[in-house]
Amino acid sequence: MQRWSFPRLRTTVFFCTGVSSLDCAALPPPLPGQPGPFSLGGPGVLAELLERTGFTEVKETVIHPPLRLPLAADCLRFERESFGALHQMLSGLTAKDQNTVWEEVAVALTKYEAADGFEGPCELVVTSGRN
């Protein structure tokens, strides 16, 4: 099993990089129990869940595979479609301000794009156990 790490990537490196109209530190955290890429991201959260359900020999390993996509626009679409917690966190903004934030995210993501495609930083925690 793998999960996105937390809190370093709480709102994703990509989302907050270069977004001038938004103070990411001031965003509220996702609602407790809300599904999303970071819902099991706290240290030991997934390991504890596995142990509570009978797994033994539970181990966590942090890896840093790059996120590779054809274009920065693909990463933006991935974030917009996949990260419901981000939408919840932005819900206090007006629709216009939300659009402004997403436009700034699109621009910020281009710094990870090169001739051979988009490659952004990523951190995953791989958790395993015996059942």
UniProtKB/TrEMBL annotation:
<keyword id="KW-0732">Signal</keyword>
<protein>
    <recommendedName>
        <fullName>Methyltransferase family protein</fullName>
    </recommendedName>
</protein>
<feature type="signal peptide">
    <location>
        <begin position="1"/>
        <end position="25"/>
    </location>
</feature>
